[in-house]
Amino acid sequence: MAFKTLSALISVVAALQVANAAIIKRVTCSTGQVTSNAACCTLFPIIDDIQTNMFENECGEDVHESLRLTFHDAIGIGSNGGGGADGSIIVFEDIETNFHASLGLDEIVDTQKPFIAKHNITPGDFLYLAGAIGVSNCQGAPQLPVFIGRPNATAPAPDLTVPEPFDTVDSILARFDDAGKFTPAEVVALLASHTVAAADRVDPTIPGTPFDSTPSVFDTQFFVETQLRGTLFPGNGSNQGEVESPLQGEIRLQSDSELARDSRTACEWQSFVNNQDKIQTAFKAAYAKMIVLGQNTQNLIDCSDVVPVPKTLNKAATFPAGLGIQDVEQACSTTPFPTLATDPGPVTSVAPVPPS
């Protein structure tokens, strides 16, 4: 039922895009690209610049951090105030990047600021453009939406609006509900972002430690590997918000581990395993809802067609080498765990994501 709701959200977005295309004649920009709205033409030079000079056309560390930045900016909203998806984390960098949950984001903010100044775009519009363009470099990812027209943020988000990895499932679900009436299924969908992510600050002795064995691919391995029994720590193991992981070089957040095993979310979590269509559709729908939090959507222009279509992923999910169904901590009581092959070779060890 929850997945049908997410699919319905994507259908609404698609219908709006079709309606907009019917009303607004497609235009050819001076750069030669075609888009649905002349206002979107200004984005193509920005895209060329950040692809070449920030992301280097790869799904690397700056992509991971740019995607993380969208979450930490947007979730800064709720009954206690905050402007949501407005770029306040860039405008008020000295305040928001010093919140405990957002430590380390000052680096990507400082990377993005020169591009914002160069291209005369609001921080909010740039932040979400960069997130979508960066993810387009990740094989298997959905083509994420982009909307422009956000005004400059006028106030910082309050502290304690971004969930921490040591927060309880109750707390995390309540925070997302308060922020935007996100359902537990949508929370699980949003955490698909961890399939292209790495931790720098959970254990600062091992920066760039991935959450799954394929951090440059938007696949379902994250949902497989978080359900495997944890046996080791990749670093010193004394860090708040970290629990044992199944693979050397892979880090596991306490929050991910508990959401994968909680009765409210376990079956939804398991449903993503080896379901590439669902991870794309569900993440895109929940992400589209997140990136307009706090905004009057009637004032925004849909520029989603400027985002490149990511490369298709045809590889099925697998158990990492050396592990199998006997290592799964089955938490969904109503559906068997999917049947997966095991990668050949010696026990899998995950390399850190190199800095940009």
Describe this structure as you would to a colleague.
- The chain is mainly α and 356 residues long.
- The protein has one domain (9-342): Peroxidase, domain 1, CATH 1.10.520.
- 38% of the residues lie in helices and 6% in strands.
- It is built from 13 helices and ten strands.
- Strands 1-2 form a two-stranded antiparallel ribbon. It has a two-stranded antiparallel sheet with strand order 3-8. A two-stranded antiparallel ribbon has the order 4-5.
- Helix 2 packs across helix 7 (123-135) and helix 3 packs across helix 7.
- The radius of gyration is 20 Å and the shape is globular.
- The N and C termini lie far apart (41 Å).
- The model is unreliable at 1-6 and 18-22 (pLDDT under 50).
Topology of this structure?
Elements (H helix, E strand, L loop, with lengths): L1 H22 L3 E2 L5 E2 L7 H11 L7 H14 L13 H4 L1 H4 L9 H14 L3 H13 L11 E2 L20 H12 L3 H7 L7 E2 L9 E2 L10 H5 L16 E2 L8 E2 H8 L4 H6 L4 H15 L10 E2 L15 E2 L21 E2 L14
Parallel strand pairs: 9-10
Antiparallel strand pairs: 1-2, 3-8, 4-5, 6-7
Helix pairs in contact: 1-13, 2-7, 3-7, 9-13
- In total, the number of strands is 10
- CATH top level is Mainly Alpha
First-residue to last-residue Cα separation: 41 Å
Strand share of the residues?
5-15%
Largest sheet: 2 strands, antiparallel
User: Major sheet: order of its strands?
Assistant: 1-2
- The shape, in one word, is globular
Q: Compute the gyration radius: what is it? A: 20 Å
Specify the helix fraction band.
Answer: 25-40%
Order of helices and strands: HEEHHHHHHEHHEEHEEHHHEEE
- Overall structural class, as computed from helix and strand content, comes to mainly alpha
